[in-house]
Amino acid sequence: MGIRILLVEDDEEIADFVVRGLREEGYTVEHAADGDDGWLALQNGPWDVVILDWWLPKPDGLTLLRRFRQAGHESPVLFLTARDAVSDKVRGLDEGADDYLCKPFDYEELLARVRALARRQAKSTGTMLAHSDVRIDLTTHRAERAGRRLDLTAKEQALLVFFLRHPDEVLSRTRIYEHVWDERYDGISNTLEYHVMEVRRKLEAHGPRLIHTLRGRGYLFGERADVGAIP
């Protein structure tokens, strides 16, 4: 959840590096390895930022960009490519890219450009999530309760974002885990329980309980627990 980024990149080493780095920053990232899968993913938006390679198999990145813009999509697109000629940069920007970064690249520069594009997108879509006295700005990653800043890890923030998107809903452990960790829930690991405990502890330092455990059902985020909550 949170800021959603699509990376369309056929170089497995670069893709793995970028995906892991962005996820550690708290972004939700999906990866497509060729033009066909990239086009399917582009249509399954909305995306807050798209990072697009030019040299892709089936079809190339410039073709994808044209299709994307012709279909009326306005998500910001960053070309991440080895094509470094000025004429290529001009062509990419004229076809609808919002930014252009050449390989090899510095990760910190990539991250700064992603943040800038996400801020630009935020002006039209809004990035503030709030419920009760809890707020998260998805662009700056600032989380607060009752006006006091919460010191959350990237995964804790992703978990709180998921709760904020689904207030007063009964959320099963499987549903939470598979959305926040993006992998299948094995029912054995206590990773989810540990992170819920940490987020709950940090929230309750500034107010009453908001994350309630429902016996045999999962969790509920809200001011009042559903029937069956465990104190």
Secondary-structure-derived class: alpha/beta
CATH topology of the largest domain: Rossmann fold
Using the 3D structure, state the CATH architecture of the largest domain: 3-Layer(aba) Sandwich
Helix content: 40-55%
CATH first level of the largest domain: Alpha Beta
User: What oligomeric state do the depicted chains represent?
Assistant: single chain
Give the rounded overall mean pLDDT.
88
Distance between the ends: 28 Å
Features:
four-stranded antiparallel sheet; Arc Repressor Mutant, subunit A; 231 residues; Rossmann fold; five-stranded parallel sheet; 21% strand; 2 domains
Description:
The chain is built from eight helices and 13 strands. It is α/β, with parallel strands linked by helices. The protein folds into two domains: 4-125, Response regulator (Rossmann fold, 3-Layer(aba) Sandwich); 128-230, Orthogonal Bundle (Arc Repressor Mutant, subunit A), CATH 1.10.10.10. The strands form three sheets. It has a five-stranded parallel β-sheet with strand order 2-1-3-4-5, sandwiched between helices. The relative contact order is 0.11. The mean pLDDT is 88.
State the gist of this model.
This protein is an alpha/beta fold and 231 residues long.
Topology:
Blueprint: E1 4-8, H1 12-24, E2 28-32, H2 35-43, E3 49-52, H3 61-70, E4 77-81, H4 86-94, E5 99-102, H5 107-125, E6 128-131, E7 134-137, E8 142-145, E9 148-149, H6 154-165, E10 170-171, H7 173-180, H8 191-204, E11 211-214, E12 218-221, E13 229-230
Parallel strand pairs: 1-2, 1-3, 3-4, 4-5
Antiparallel strand pairs: 6-7, 7-8, 8-9, 10-12, 11-12, 11-13
Helix pairs in contact: 6-8
